[in-house]
Every structure is written in structure tokens, then in C-alpha cells.
TrEMBL record, chain A:
GO terms for molecular function: DNA-binding transcription factor activity; transferase activity. Keywords: Transferase. Residues 11-80 form the Cyclic nucleotide-binding domain. It holds the Pfam family cNMP_binding. This is Crotonobetainyl-CoA--carnitine CoA-transferase.
From TrEMBL, chain B:
This is Oxidoreductase. GO terms for biological process: pyrimidine nucleotide biosynthetic process. One of its GO terms (molecular function) is 2 iron, 2 sulfur cluster binding. Residues 6-105 form the FAD-binding FR-type domain. It comes from Rhodococcus oxybenzonivorans. [2Fe-2S] cluster binds at C240, C245, C248, C256.
Length: 153, 276
């Protein structure tokens, strides 16, 4: 079996009980079947998901190589960051690599609540930033190509 | 210090298994009687390609737990390792050892998190084998394996068998996206961020390129695992194997003697010094 199973999404785990309850109230459960397309590159980015179980692959089309997997997300990860951008369109495509259960965040409601209640917005932003930094650091580590052949000592 | 530490003993290549294009696993059997010296997961031997030189290679399996049969996984990265990699079945190589400290799995009753990157899976393979042989001694066991690409994955059949087990959580992830690959893509730290960890009851064993171990250890520290419960396998220029020549010095440590497995509380301040 693979590591993971159903775990508390990391964004929720980073919040205290009250903020977790309030964010959870903005979510609704969704399920993606194996192979189901979740979003397509270039389409409007209007949603965000907290993955509970399963796995999702982010891909992009490379001429001559087809759809190339950039990263695999699992239970606990946040899927969908493009809505935070100045021009909210999906930068990549995503499909479920396995049956996946997730909590879909109502982004419009989240932004409205964060605007009206800066403290809530700040806490959620801090938590999202922490996850985003972890993803960025892991991606940078991958760029190092650490497992490439190196000289004998 | 026994003669097996100072004088190479002849070992015949009994079998070879090509793992990847540049990596082979060899089984070695002694050409003369050898003492019943235990060989522990995480320890290394000095393998001598006649006329070329010696190189430190960790044991990648311990079928008998002593010098009677040795298993090493050798990646061809230079003159000596290339010569060892190319040594055919029936030929004889020289062996000294075992050297250093292996992985510390005591006390039992704890969760284990094993993180291996690239050829770093080889020194951890025997520890996973010994854990599975005494599975009841541990709580949750998670193995995270990172590889450059699907063609660089070591011990593929064994990994598949581990993944099929209900009592072992295994994540295999590759760095470089490849068309047709249906497994996970990402760095090992992403798995570490995600897995369930009970920090007070976790022992972590890390082996791979040094930056990979540093990055992984930092995630574990962020998640509350004490540095004393994180073990890393370090590598420097191992030469004598007995703490005399000083080539493998890392600060106050001589890694052939005080390592290669060191806890991160000891290693971290030393790894922060670029000059070391």
C-alpha cells in the first residue's frame, strides 16, 4: 500500500479549531474518479481543493512528448493555486490518478470572508503561504538533480 | 583491530544483478576462511579492484549477517567503482571491513520513517529487510524512495513487493517527469510534509545526497521530530577505514570510525560549515 490514506488536509491542520471550523464551512465534499479531468490548462481558475485521499497529477502538454506529469499530489495536499494569481487561469492541467476524495473550497466565499474579517484572512493566508513555500522549496530541490551521477571521492 | 580491517581478503564475485545502466548488485563469497564478524546494516566495506584502487561501499544486503556472504550495490562513477562494476562473475576482488557504525533501531516500539534518495537506497535496503523480519518490534513503518527517473530506480522488484505489503507504507517518487510514468512525481520532502508523523515516537533514517538529507531533516525538525532521533549516513573520502589517515574527517568526526551513520544533532552543525 502507499503512504497516505485519508489524512487531515495540511491547510486545515495548520489552523486552530475556530479557524478550521470556519474554513471547513466554506467547503463541500467532492469525489473524482480515476482518470477524471479536474481542470484544463488555460481555463478560468475558480476553485481550490483540499485533498483527503487519492492522488492527482498536474500535467502540461509538451510537443512531441504529450502530457507530461510535473507533480503528483496526494491526500493532505492543496490542489489549485492559480486562483491567487493576478490573471486567474489554470497554469497546468490536473486529473485524478486514482479515485480521489477532496473538500472543494468556495473561493468567492473565502475571499469575501477574508476581506470582511482581516484576522481570518491573515491566518488562512499565513497557512497557505507555508504550504506554498514548502512546495516551492521541494521544487527547487528537484531542480538540483541531486541523484545525477557524480564523481567518485 | 583484526586483520580483516587491515589486509584485503579475496572475495569471488558469485553473482551480479544489473540494477540500472550504471549500477550493479554483486554477491561476494570469500576465497578463504573468514571470521564470524557480524556485518550490520549501515556499515561499509572497502572494496579493492586489483591494480585500480579501493573504494568504500555500504552493504546492500546482509543475507547471513556476517562476513560469509557480502552483498554490495556499486554505481559506476569513477575509475575504481567502474572497475568493480565491470568485474565479472568468478573474478576476485579484495575486501576489508566491516567499518563504522550502522543504523540504530533501538529502542523498539517506535514509528520508523526511512527516506532514501538515488543509490542511497542501497545502505537502507538491509535495514528494511531486518525491520520486516522483526515487524512486530515497530509501529508504523514508512519508506520514501526518491529516484531521478524510472530508469534509475534500484531494486524494482523488491520495491514492488514492499508496496504490496499491508504493514509497510511505501512512496516511490521520481524527480524528472517522463511520459508514460504513472507513479508519483515530486521530491522526497513533499512526501515527508504529507505523511502522518508522531514526532515523539519517530525514528528517521535518511540516506542519499547530502542536500537531500539536510532538506529532509529540516522537514522532520519542523514537524517536531528531535534531531537526536534523525539518523543520516554521511560520506567523505574514506581511505583507511580505521580512523587513522584522517581523509574522512568532518569536524571532530572521522566518518569511517564515528560514522557513516550519525545522528542529526551531531551532524547538523558540521554540515552547516561549507569548508568541512
Amino acid at each position: 500500500m502507499t503512504a497516505g490514506g485519508t489524512v487531515l488536509p495540511s491547510l486545515l491542520a495548520a489552523l486552530d479549531d475556530e479557524h478550521r471550523r470556519r474554513l471547513t464551512a466554506l467547503t463541500s465534499p467532492v469525489r473524482f474518479g480515476e482518470g477524471e479531468v479536474i481542470f484544463r490548462e488555460g481555463a478560468p481558475a475558480t476553485r481550490c481543493w483540499l485533498l483527503g485521499s487519492g492522488s492527482v497529477v498536474l500535467t502540461t502538454h509538451v510537443p512531441g512528448r504529450g502530457a507530461v506529469a510535473l507533480e503528483t499530489l496526494h491526500g493532505g495536499d492543496v490542489l489549485g493555486w492559480s486562483w491567487l494569481g493576478a490573471r486567474p487561469v489554470w497554469q497546468f492541467a490536473a486529473h485524478a490518478a486514482a479515485a480521489t476524495e477532496a473538500a472543494e473550497i468556495d473561493i468567492t466565499a473565502l475571499e469575501r470572508m477574508a476581506g470582511a474579517e482581516p484576522e481570518f484572512g491573515y491566518v488562512v493566508t499565513r497557512a497557505l503561504s507555508g504550504l506554498l513555500i514548502a512546495r516551492l522549496q521541494s521544487t527547487r530541490a528537484r531542480l538540483l538533480d541531486l541523484y545525477a551521477n557524480r564523481r567518485e571521492m | 583491530m583484526s586483520t580483516t580491517h587491515m589486509l584485503p581478503t579475496g572475495y569471488r564475485v558469485h553473482s551480479r544483478a544489473q540494477e540500472t545502466a550504471d549500477t550493479v548488485t554483486v554477491t561476494l563469497t570469500p576465497t578463504t576462511a573468514v571470521p564470524k564478524t557480524p556485518v550490520l546494516p549501515g556499515q561499509f566495506m572497502m572494496l579493492y579492484a586489483h591494480g585500480v584502487g579501493e573504494v568504500a561501499i555500504s552493504v546492500s544486503d546482509a543475507p547471513r549477517g556476517d562476513l560469509g556472504v557480502l552483498v554490495h550495490t556499486v554505481r559506476s562513477v569513477g575509475a575504481v567503482s567502474r572497475a568493480l562494476h565491470d568485474t565479472p562473475v568468478g573474478a576476485v576482488v579484495g575486501v576489508r571491513g566491516p567499518f563504522g557504525h550502522g543504523w540504530n533501531l533501538y529502542p523498539g516500539g517506535r514509528d520508523l520513517v526511512v527516506v532514501a534518495g538515488g543509490v542511497g537506497l542501497a545502505p537502507l535496503r538491509p535495514v528494511i529487510g531486518s525491520v520486516l523480519a522483526e515487524r512486530d518490534r515497530f509501529r508504523r513503518v514508512t519508506v520514501i524512495v526518491g529516484a531521478r527517473s524510472p530508469s534509475n530506480i534500484l531494486f524494482g522488484a523488491e520495491l514492488a513487493a514492499w508496496q504490496a505489503r499491508e504493514d509497510l507504507d511505501v512512496e516511490l517518487t521520481i524527480d524528472q517527469p517522463v511520459s508514460g510514468w504513472t507513479g508519483a512525481v515530486g521530491f522526497v520532502t513533499e512526501s515527508l510534509h504529507r505523511i502522518n508523523i508522531d514526532p515523539a515516537r519517530t525514528t528517521a533514517l535518511l540516506c542519499g545526497p547530502e542536500p537531500m538529507m539536510r532538506f529532509s531533516a529540516r522537514v522532520l525538525l519542523d514537524r517536531g521530530v528531535p534531531a537526536t532521533d534523525i539518523q543520516v549516513s554521511l560520506e567523505r573520502n574514506m581511505q583507511c577505514g580505521v580512523g587513522v589517515c584522517g581523509h574522512c574527517q568532518l569536524g571532530e568526526l572521522l566518518l569511517c570510525r564515528d560514522g557513516p551513520v550519525v545522528d542529526f544533532a551531531t551532524a547538523e552543525p558540521l554540515l552547516r560549515v561549507p569548508e568541512l
